[in-house]
Design a protein that fits this description.
CATH class of one domain: Mainly Beta
Strand order of the largest sheet: 1-2-3-4-5-6-7-8
Strand content: 15-25%
Shape: elongated
Helix content: 25-40%
Order of helices and strands: HHHHHEEEEEEEE
Number of helices: 5
Structural class: alpha+beta
Mean pLDDT: 70
Distance between the termini: 161 Å
Number of strands: 8
Length: 211
């Protein structure tokens, strides 16, 4: 009886065998397919890769920089070209002929200044007599001749001569004028008198005003 009562109380024999589960049943499947990246979202919505995103950002940055709106510094070569172009434009705008520069920078002795100016010639009343600083010589001598003067509407003949300064210590300044273009002597000496230029024939050009 004791054995039957025990069996009826438990309903089952305590040593009844338990079902054995296979180890392969509990272990998840680790097939190569299981290592794939998560499935994409809804069809048509493709996520851009990091490389593609960086490429797009670089293109956009270059486009903005090309428009002058980017923060990238201007290449040094471009700056040098702009500076050179600006300097060249400025120099062209301020250009002065070489002849004018030579005339302005050419030193003129103090004694020579007495010969620079306008003069009157008694042999040719009213005709031009002008002496200025020369470019390839000390002086440029310009004038006109009438028949004989230039006060009554006579036809005038212009001429241009070259002159050089003669400086001798303890003597008044002298000027040598080449009159060969007018059919005269090559080196005609003129002496400064304090009021004009006296030539060997006794003719004196009286100084009117300084240039």
């Amino acid at each position: 009886e004791g054995g039957d009562a025990h069996d009826g109380h438990l309903g089952k024999h305590p040593s009844a065998p338990m079902p054995i589960m296979s180890v392969s049943t509990l272990r998840p499947t680790l097939s190569p397919a299981g290592l794939r990246a998560p499935a994409a979202g809804p069809r048509g919505s493709k996520r851009p890769s990091a490389v593609a995103a960086r490429g797009s950002s670089t293109r956009n940055h270059k486009s903005v920089a090309a428009l002058g709106c980017g923060k990238s510094p201007v290449p040094p070569l471009v700056l040098q070209t702009l500076v050179a172009a600006t300097a060249f434009s400025l120099c062209a705008a301020l250009a002065v002929p070489d002849a004018a520069i030579a005339a302005l920078s050419k030193p003129l002795p103090g004694s020579a200044s007495v010969f620079v100016g306008e003069f009157s010639d008694p042999k040719h009343p009213g005709c031009l007599r002008s002496i200025g600083v020369g470019e390839d010589s000390a002086f440029d001598v310009k004038g006109t001749d009438g028949s004989p003067g230039c006060l009554n509407g006579e036809k005038q003949r212009p001429w241009s001569l070259k002159g050089d300064l003669v400086e001798i210590p303890s003597k008044a300044p002298e000027i040598l004028i080449d009159f060969t273009p007018k059919g005269g002597p090559k080196n005609l000496l003129g002496k400064w008198t304090g009021t004009g230029i006296l030539f060997p024939d006794g003719n004196e050009w009286k100084k009117l005003s300084a240039q």
